[in-house]
Design goal:
The protein has an 8-stranded mixed sheet with strand order 3-2-4-1-5-6-7-8, with helices on both faces. With 307 residues, the chain is α/β, with parallel strands linked by helices. It contains 12 helices and 8 strands. The chain is 51% helix and 13% strand. Helix 7 links the parallel strand 2 and strand 3.
């Protein structure tokens, strides 16, 4: 299955639910009026786009309809796709140009964090980069073993200590190993922390200080992994993490298992944090770099029979 096909298939539930309902609604209108915009806004909110973002989208559509003199309600589908693509556009690639660069991966337990690290490591290895994994989630039982399995699958080195050891010490060792082995990227797993667990946030700060001290000039990415199936809860989670820890990007997992793909828009618009990767399946190559144009095209794609 090709790159675009994976994203299209991964967004099927969201497309069938949210966009399907919007298209059905548009067919019930013979003209573009305020009632149409109100119903559209309601459907966007139900699709986990979020109230503020849904309002912004409908306001944008009103302006485009007026500017282009659009009369046919079915044209709203095209205008909506264009508005979403524009809203999502921006810097969504990883900034990892130094040798080494470092990626710190954070998020609560259960969102697919360690799996995401394994898939990301594989993705970077496919690009010819030498990757070292740091098993700095030393609190959760079996987290180290789980990361070891992914290191083997992706063909990457791993730096680890025993369960319960100091996470910052693991990161320090990984940085030392990366320098000695001329590695391109260090990816650090961290404990699945909730934003109200102060000692865990303090641990994250400690890791950050080690990174800043040992790699002051390196490119750094702080990626927050979120579960798309939780919808607006994921947005709230991202807001808390952004305030407490600072994040440079989002990895949104389990998009293929939910009709709440509209959460991507909320994250980008309300938090101004780019989505950098999306998970659209269980396979090792199902973590895809986020591309706003492809995402929008896949989200609004119509089946042949609908054309």
């Amino acid at each position: 299955m090709g790159f675009f096909s994976k994203i299209k298939e991964g967004l099927k539930k969201t497309r069938d639910s949210v966009i399907g309902q919007i298209d059905s609604m548009l067919k019930s209108f013979t003209k573009i009026d305020e009632e149409l915009f109100e119903e559209l806004e309601e459907l966007l909110i139900m699709g986990d786009v979020g109230v503020a973002t849904a309002t912004k989208i409908t306001d944008e559509l009103r302006a485009r309809v007026k500017k282009e003199g659009v009369k046919d309600p079915n044209e709203i589908h095209r205008l909506l796709e264009e508005a979403v693509a524009d809203m999502l556009s921006g810097d969504d690639g990883l900034n990892i140009n130094t040798q080494p660069s470092i990626i710190l991966v954070i998020g609560v337990n259960g969102v697919g964090k360690t799996t995401t690290i394994g898939k990301l490591a594989n993705n970077l290895r496919q690009q010819g980069k030498r990757v070292i994994l740091a098993a700095a989630d030393t609190f959760r039982a079996a987290a180290i073993e789980q990361l070891e399995i992914w290191a083997q699958r992706s063909g990457c080195d791993i730096v680890k200590q025993s369960e319960g050891s100091d996470p910052a010490a693991v990161v320090f060792d990984a940085i030392s190993a990366a320098k000695a082995r001329n590695a391109d990227v260090i990816i650090c797993d961290t404990a699945g922390r909730l934003h109200n667990k102060k000692h865990l946030m303090d641990e994250l700060s400690k890791i950050g200080r080690i990174i800043d001290r040992e790699l002051p000039d390196a490119d750094k990415e702080y990626l927050l992994v979120l579960d798309a199936t939780t919808g607006q809860n994921a947005v709230n989670q991202a807001r808390e993490f952004k305030n407490a820890a600072g994040i440079t990007g989002i990895v949104l997992t389990k998009l293929d298992g939910t009709a709440k793909g509209g959460v991507v828009l909320s994250i980008k618009e309300e938090l101004d944090v780019p989505v950098k990767y999306i998970g659209v399946g269980e396979q090792i190559d199902d973590l895809q770099p986020f591309n706003s144009e492809d995402f929008s095209k896949a989200l609004f794609a119509r089946d042949e029979k609908e054309q």
